[in-house]
């Protein structure tokens, strides 16, 4: 049976779900936040080690200001209201992305939530905020440059240098310490990665569902997991 330690989800379709119901897009984001709670609790109960959710990308700042402002307020409310859920389910909360690009208030709430759940030993939930994989890899490379890792690599033979740099990149990614993604799910019917965990998803199994995120459920996730366990993962071998 395939080992499943890390699930990543691109939560797509909030706006379209709301528009189909004749509602403002913000209505879809509110419902989507409720689904985040449901799916996170389900994964915690399945003894999955890591769940990474794509909440706000580095490109999402291009959306209308009114929608961006609402999303930031919704995130603030989520961080202020969900701590009990995380504590009761032994979930560790970690934000990945360029946190310094967020408001000071949101940064403070993030750090408070992370500190409060740091001792939890069950599921680790990574919430991707102001996240983009290209940005993440660039920030990693900048860190390695400041630590003279590339200069050190020059003293090694070519293959050793490449392996040395790759290992250092892994150790400076936002998800450092976590296993690579085993299963990447995208809701909403689109079939693209949208700059999400490009390094970590090198050998992830991909699953695309037309279900819009507000309609996604633990029952559908369970069905996807059954499909995952039937797949054969070769990781480049035979």
UniProtKB/TrEMBL annotation:
<feature type="binding site">
    <location>
        <position position="17"/>
    </location>
    <ligand>
        <name>substrate</name>
    </ligand>
</feature>
<dbReference type="GO" id="GO:0008834">
    <property type="term" value="F:ditrans,polycis-undecaprenyl-diphosphate synthase [(2E,6E)-farnesyl-diphosphate specific] activity"/>
</dbReference>
<feature type="binding site">
    <location>
        <begin position="57"/>
        <end position="59"/>
    </location>
    <ligand>
        <name>substrate</name>
    </ligand>
</feature>
<dbReference type="InterPro" id="IPR036424">
    <property type="entry name" value="UPP_synth-like_sf"/>
</dbReference>
<dbReference type="Pfam" id="PF01255">
    <property type="entry name" value="Prenyltransf"/>
</dbReference>
<keyword id="KW-0460">Magnesium</keyword>
<feature type="binding site">
    <location>
        <position position="186"/>
    </location>
    <ligand>
        <name>substrate</name>
    </ligand>
</feature>
<dbReference type="InterPro" id="IPR001441">
    <property type="entry name" value="UPP_synth-like"/>
</dbReference>
<feature type="binding site">
    <location>
        <position position="63"/>
    </location>
    <ligand>
        <name>substrate</name>
    </ligand>
</feature>
<feature type="active site">
    <location>
        <position position="12"/>
    </location>
</feature>
<feature type="binding site">
    <location>
        <position position="12"/>
    </location>
    <ligand>
        <name>Mg(2+)</name>
    </ligand>
</feature>
<comment type="function">
    <text>Catalyzes the condensation of isopentenyl diphosphate (IPP) with allylic pyrophosphates generating different type of terpenoids.</text>
</comment>
<keyword id="KW-0808">Transferase</keyword>
<feature type="binding site">
    <location>
        <position position="61"/>
    </location>
    <ligand>
        <name>substrate</name>
    </ligand>
</feature>
<comment type="similarity">
    <text>Belongs to the UPP synthase family.</text>
</comment>
<dbReference type="InterPro" id="IPR018520">
    <property type="entry name" value="UPP_synth-like_CS"/>
</dbReference>
<dbReference type="GO" id="GO:0000287">
    <property type="term" value="F:magnesium ion binding"/>
</dbReference>
<comment type="subunit">
    <text>Homodimer.</text>
</comment>
<feature type="binding site">
    <location>
        <begin position="13"/>
        <end position="16"/>
    </location>
    <ligand>
        <name>substrate</name>
    </ligand>
</feature>
<feature type="binding site">
    <location>
        <begin position="192"/>
        <end position="194"/>
    </location>
    <ligand>
        <name>substrate</name>
    </ligand>
</feature>
<feature type="active site" description="Proton acceptor">
    <location>
        <position position="60"/>
    </location>
</feature>
<dbReference type="GO" id="GO:0005829">
    <property type="term" value="C:cytosol"/>
</dbReference>
<feature type="binding site">
    <location>
        <position position="29"/>
    </location>
    <ligand>
        <name>substrate</name>
    </ligand>
</feature>
<feature type="binding site">
    <location>
        <position position="25"/>
    </location>
    <ligand>
        <name>substrate</name>
    </ligand>
</feature>
<protein>
    <recommendedName>
        <fullName>Isoprenyl transferase</fullName>
        <ecNumber>2.5.1.-</ecNumber>
    </recommendedName>
</protein>
<dbReference type="GO" id="GO:0016094">
    <property type="term" value="P:polyprenol biosynthetic process"/>
</dbReference>
<keyword id="KW-0479">Metal-binding</keyword>
<feature type="binding site">
    <location>
        <position position="205"/>
    </location>
    <ligand>
        <name>Mg(2+)</name>
    </ligand>
</feature>
């Amino acid at each position: 049976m395939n080992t499943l330690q890390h699930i990543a989800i691109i939560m797509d379709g909030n706006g379209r779900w709301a528009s189909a119901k004749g509602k403002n897009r913000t209505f879809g984001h509110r419902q989507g936040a409720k689904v985040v709670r449901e799916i996170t609790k389900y994964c915690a109960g399945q003894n999955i080690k890591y769940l990474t959710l794509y909440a706000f990308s580095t490109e999402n700042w291009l959306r209308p200001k009114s929608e961006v402002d609402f999303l930031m307020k919704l995130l603030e409310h989520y961080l202020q209201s969900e701590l009990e859920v995380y504590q009761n389910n032994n979930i560790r909360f970690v934000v990945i992305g360029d946190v310094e690009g967020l408001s000071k208030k949101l940064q403070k709430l993030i750090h408070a939530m992370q500190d409060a759940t740091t001792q939890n030993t069950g599921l680790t939930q990574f919430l991707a905020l102001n996240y983009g994989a290209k940005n993440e890899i660039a920030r990693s490379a900048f860190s390695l440059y400041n630590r003279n890792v590339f200069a050190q690599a020059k003293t090694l033979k070519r293959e050793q240098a490449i392996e040395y740099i790759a290992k250092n990149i892994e150790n400076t990614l936002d998800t450092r310490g976590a296993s690579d993604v085993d299963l990447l799910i995208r809701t909403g019917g689109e079939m693209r990665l949208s700059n999400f965990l490009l390094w970590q998803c090198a050998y992830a199994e991909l699953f695309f569902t037309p279900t819009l995120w507000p309609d996604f459920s633990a029952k559908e996730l369970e069905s996807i997991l059954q499909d995952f366990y039937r797949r054969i993962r070769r990781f480049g071998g035979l």
